[in-house]
Specification:
Strand order of the largest sheet: 6-7-8-3-9-10
Oligomer: single chain
Distance between the termini: 55 Å
Structural class: alpha/beta
Bound molecules: adenosine-5'-triphosphate
Order of helices and strands: HEEEHEEHEHHHHEHEEEHH
Number of strands: 10
Number of helices: 10
Shape: globular
Low-confidence stretches: 1-10, 19-34
Radius of gyration: 20 Å
Mean pLDDT: 85
């Protein structure tokens, strides 16, 4: 009978290996949709990150030729700064992140990191420089230690523990009977949304990238978990260039700059205070979310 199951095991192994090859790109991306034609230019050098500044220069892009999604976007993220991208659903926020990771090439314009056009450097070096904390973290049916270590090859147990502590999930893991050997995923311990996000944060801490993309979860975490995760994220943003794709405005108040994207164009940009004074789209979104939050509180 065991002979009979072997091919199935094998299939699982192949599947897992493939998944391991792609997981790093983040669960936020639908990989099947990505353009297979992204190739390194012959003799492409690796990206050399000196400061970690990111620039989108007149970026135009559409998934299909006849539908423009981004219509000439200019964004500058100085090294170490945090820029939040907000805007209505479908405005193109996640598309910006996909383009920075070079899942697609631009129709025109360019994206640079420390002055180097990302389409002219190796994809491996580009992706090694960028960490993503996705909306939904995919966990392997393996130990929690393995799931964290996935952030970097050859990490030691001490590295993994330090990353887990940095993501504020270390004490929780150590309280489990099997500690870091606890199996998680579909066939193991089910982690909550917040715990999964912390595993993703720990992975990113192990990877230690100079550039971060945070894709805020749309799924509701309870407000206490949310503010705790927010505090952890603010710590890992320190010293890194960060792009936050935000769905809740409460989390962008402290960003160095907020970009309001609407139908593929930058409608407004500025700090939270500047945008409120402007009394435009951002101010309108802010008032609406504040009212919704009040109503939700009243209903509790
Ligand atoms: P949300 O806040 O809902 O996540 P968003 O601002 O992040 O939205 P994007 O995911 O960037 O929006 O999508 C922008 C537009 O591009 C949408 O109209 C979407 O339908 C379209 N789009 C996204 N991915 C693809 C794809 N792989 N192929 C074709 N169109 C796509």
């Amino acid at each position: 009978l065991s002979q009979l199951f072997r091919p199935l095991d094998m299939l699982g192994w192949v599947y897992r290996t493939i998944r391991q090859g792609v997981i790093d790109m983040g669960a936020m991306f639908d990989l099947i949709d990505t353009d297979a034609e992204i190739v390194d230019v012959p003799g492409a050098p690796p990206l050399a990150v000196t400061q970690g500044s990111v620039r989108f220069e007149n970026v135009r892009f559409g998934y299909e030729d006849d539908r423009k999604i981004l219509k000439g976007i200019d964004i500058e993220v100085p090294a170490g700064a945090t820029v939040a991208v907000v805007g209505p659903s479908g405005a193109g926020k996640s598309t910006l992140a996909r383009l920075l990771f070079r899942f697609y090439d631009l129709k025109s314009g360019r994206i640079t990191i420390d002055g180097q056009d990302i389409s002219q450097v190796t994809q491996d070096s580009l992706r090694a420089a960028i960490g993503i904390v996705p909306q939904d973290t995919v966990l392997f049916n393996d130990t929690v230690g393995y799931n964290i270590a996935y952030g970097r090859e050859g990490s030691t147990h001490d590295d993994i523990r330090a990353a887990a502590q940095g993501a504020a999930i270390g004490d929780f893991i150590e309280s489990l009977p099997d500690g870091y050997e606890t199996r998680v995923g579909e066939r193991g311990l089910k982690l909550s949304g917040g715990e999964k996000q912390r595993v993703a944060i720990a992975r990113t801490l192990l990877k230690n990238p100079p550039i971060l993309i945070l894709d805020e979860a749309t799924s509701a975490l309870d407000s206490r978990t949310e503010s705790e995760i927010q505090a952890t994220l603010e710590q890992i943003e320190r010293g890194r260039t960060t792009i936050v794709i935000a769905h809740r405005l409460s989390t962008v108040v402290n960003a160095d700059q907020i970009i309001v994207l609407e139908a593929g164009e930058v409608a407004e940009r500025g700090t939270h205070a500047e945008l409120l004074r402007k009394n435009g789209l951002y101010a309108e979104m802010w008032t609406r979310q504040a009212n919704e939050a009040e109503e939700a509180l009243a209903a509790e």
